[in-house]
Amino acid sequence: MGNNTAAIHLLGKMEERGCKPDIFTFNTIIDSHCKDTLVDQALNLFTEMITRGIAPDVVTYTSLIQAVCKLGEWKEATRLLDEMLSKGISPDLPTFNVLVDTFCKEGMVVEAKSVIQMMIQRDIQPNSVTYNSLMDGHCLLGEMDEAKKVFDLMVSKGSMVNVQSCTILINGYCKG
């Protein structure tokens, strides 16, 4: 766990000394809170940042989305994604991967596939992380034929298959 109290204290000291915090400062502290699952505090900092006229970016939103996803709050994750899009902030590969992984872990493979389609429409190509999450989602649902199709797709794309890919599929067969 990060020492978030010290970080907030230093943020206050920065301002006392005339050093204005920027997007990088806030993103660092928000991400630390998110990683420690202190989502309410992270959202408070997010609000404070906006109040100060500092616009959030893809890094800010991805940190928040990942944090709420860790807590299984996929509706909040979707809300944050919608808010992000409404502000003209384009999600990137890490943002999409967090959503795909969360939906798959929740057994919502159809929704994960919709996110992958959104990625592709935005010219963001899924990577091994994306496909491993999707394959794992199918395995968790006992859909081994679908998991194998994802694996075969990865093989057809070249160097996408890795040890984790194979382990996911093996694990799925063992539990199947």
UniProtKB/TrEMBL annotation:
<dbReference type="Pfam" id="PF12854">
    <property type="entry name" value="PPR_1"/>
</dbReference>
<protein>
    <submittedName>
        <fullName>Putative tetratricopeptide-like helical domain-containing protein</fullName>
    </submittedName>
</protein>
<feature type="repeat" description="PPR">
    <location>
        <begin position="127"/>
        <end position="161"/>
    </location>
</feature>
<dbReference type="InterPro" id="IPR011990">
    <property type="entry name" value="TPR-like_helical_dom_sf"/>
</dbReference>
<feature type="repeat" description="PPR">
    <location>
        <begin position="92"/>
        <end position="126"/>
    </location>
</feature>
<feature type="repeat" description="PPR">
    <location>
        <begin position="22"/>
        <end position="56"/>
    </location>
</feature>
<dbReference type="Pfam" id="PF13041">
    <property type="entry name" value="PPR_2"/>
</dbReference>
<dbReference type="InterPro" id="IPR002885">
    <property type="entry name" value="PPR_rpt"/>
</dbReference>
<feature type="repeat" description="PPR">
    <location>
        <begin position="57"/>
        <end position="91"/>
    </location>
</feature>
<keyword id="KW-0677">Repeat</keyword>
